[in-house]
């Protein structure tokens, strides 16, 4: 997906700023964001449109929603749902999802951060980008106020920083992403201090579980699968370390070690394809570690957690796809079917942008046989999202992934690239 320019700010440690310095920082952020929007508008519009958009930018609301307002918040939340879900308004399907929805609807900073990302990627047209800029400005303003307040590391602040990190992932802004992830880790650390009253919320743990393979706002371990392919949305070692004392330390250690080992194995296999090893070295460097990892992944399946189980199935498919000599099409299709069923049981539904950057969905699509029911399910789930964003003007929804990870015509990444081109209608 083509990425418009977007500025985020590191507000970690903002409480140390003097009132004058804080005022200057806010003025700088506002000036920078508005200048970027004017520059973008000038490159995409004619003189009349440039004048209208410049006038619109100058009309940033003087009143910022600093406290909950149930009628206003409900309206904004319904608007948000219509922006991020294909079916529009979505009823929560689990207690975790209901808690997450309630938090968004009741917390102005999280709502504005969510709208900033959702509006930004609804359409590339200038009017939508200007609306996104206003939401982004408001979110940063509210976040500064919260962080400057004593003991303000609330669930809403954590959710807002997490959402901004996801926005930076879509933006492919690695600097902003690192800033937000670092701030998130510090906030979690503060929540586990002796003076802290509340541990991190359960939905944060869930989102981090989903992030092990391809980061996002859905359980963090799940996103570890994205991390394996170099496209984490929320998954990061610093956040995992910060969560150690809040959640099941054993599960986090298992998933982190497994993810790191698969990344190392993938590098070994890539190196072998470029510079072939002799048979004894292949057995020692690839086949033996591969066998050990498959054993560990199967053990992970026994843990009674939906995100861990779905992550285990996705990683097991990755291992077979990285070194396919010992797998049959029927076996991979069976595993893909199990992954499909596991995804359908997850307690938090992914938004459109989460789905479009979800490597587990892509893994299921490339692993299953061409005419099988599991492949049709994975491809259809991705294709519906692709068609929706293409109708709104984003011609290459996977453009960011292709630019960062594409270019290979063989191996697993080559299969991903072929899938992206197929879904975008480039073949």
Our estimate of the beta-strand percent is under 5%
Q: What series of H and E elements makes up the topology? A: HHHHHHHHHHHHHHHHHHHH
Radius of gyration from the CA trace? 22 Å
Globular, elongated, flat, extended or rod-shaped: what is the shape?
globular
Q: What is the count of β-strands? A: 0
Percent range of helical residues: 55-70%
Tell me the count of domains: 2
Quaternary structure: single chain
Distance between the termini: 17 Å
Could you describe the largest sheet, including whether it forms a barrel? Answer: none
Outline the low-pLDDT stretches: 4-18, 20-25, 41-63, 209-218
- Give the count of helical stretches: 20
Mean pLDDT: 79
Category by helix and strand content: mainly alpha
InterPro entries: Fun_TF
Pfam family, one: Fungal_trans_2
Can you offer a commentary on this structure?
The protein has 427 residues and is an all-alpha fold. The chain has 2 domains: 14-89 and 107-194, no CATH class; 249-423, no CATH class. It contains 20 helices and no strands. It is globular, with a radius of gyration of 22 Å. The two termini are 17 Å apart. Mean pLDDT is 79; it is low at 4-18, 20-25, 41-63 and 209-218. InterPro entries: Fun_TF.
Task: Describe what is shown at a glance.
The protein has 427 residues and is mainly α.
């Amino acid at each position: 997906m083509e990425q418009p320019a977007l500025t985020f700010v590191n507000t970690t440690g903002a409480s140390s700023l003097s009132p004058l310095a804080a005022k200057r920082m806010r003025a700088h952020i506002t000036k920078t964001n508005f200048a970027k929007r004017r520059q973008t508008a000038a490159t995409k519009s004619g003189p009349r449109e440039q004048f209208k958009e410049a006038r619109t930018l100058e009309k940033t609301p003087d009143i910022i929603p600093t406290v909950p307002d149930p009628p206003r918040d409900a309206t904004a939340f319904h608007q948000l749902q219509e922006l991020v879900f294909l079916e529009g308004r979505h009823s929560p399907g689990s207690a975790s999802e209901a808690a997450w929805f309630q938090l968004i609807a009741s917390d102005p900073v999280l709502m504005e951060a969510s709208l900033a990302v959702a509006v930004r990627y609804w359409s590339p047209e200038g009017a939508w980008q200007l609306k996104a800029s206003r939401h982004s400005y408001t979110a940063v303003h509210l976040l500064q106020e919260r962080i400057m307040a004593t003991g303000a590391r609330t669930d809403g602040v954590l959710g807002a920083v997490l959402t901004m990190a996801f926005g930076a992932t879509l933006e492919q802004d690695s600097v902003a992403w690192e800033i937000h992830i670092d701030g998130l880790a510090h906030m979690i650390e503060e929540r586990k201090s002796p003076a802290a009253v509340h541990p991190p919320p359960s939905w944060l743990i869930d989102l981090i579980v989903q992030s092990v393979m391809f980061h996002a706002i859905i359980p963090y371990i799940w996103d570890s699968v994205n991390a394996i392919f170099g496209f984490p949305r929320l998954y990061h070692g610093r956040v995992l370390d910060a969560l150690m004392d809040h959640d099941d330390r054993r599960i986090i250690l298992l998933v982190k070690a497994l993810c790191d080992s698969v990344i190392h194995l993938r590098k070994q296999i890539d190196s072998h394809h470029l510079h072939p090893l002799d048979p004894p070295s292949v057995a020692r460097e690839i086949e033996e570690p591969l066998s050990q990892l498959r054993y560990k992944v199967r053990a992970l399946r026994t843990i009674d957690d939906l995100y861990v189980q779905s992550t285990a199935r996705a990683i097991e498919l990755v291992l077979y796809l990285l070194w396919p000599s010992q797998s049959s099409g029927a076996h991979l299709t069976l595993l893909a079917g199990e992954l499909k069923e596991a995804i359908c049981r997850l307690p938090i539904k992914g938004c459109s942008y989460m789905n479009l950057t979800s490597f587990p969905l892509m893994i299921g699509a490339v692993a299953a046989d061409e005419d099988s029911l599991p492949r049709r399910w994975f491809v259809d789930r991705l294709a519906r999202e692709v068609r929706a964003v293409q109708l709104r003007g984003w011609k290459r929804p996977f453009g960011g992934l292709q630019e960062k990870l594409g270019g290979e015509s063989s191996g697993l990444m080559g299969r991903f690239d072929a899938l992206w081109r197929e879904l975008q209608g480039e073949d």
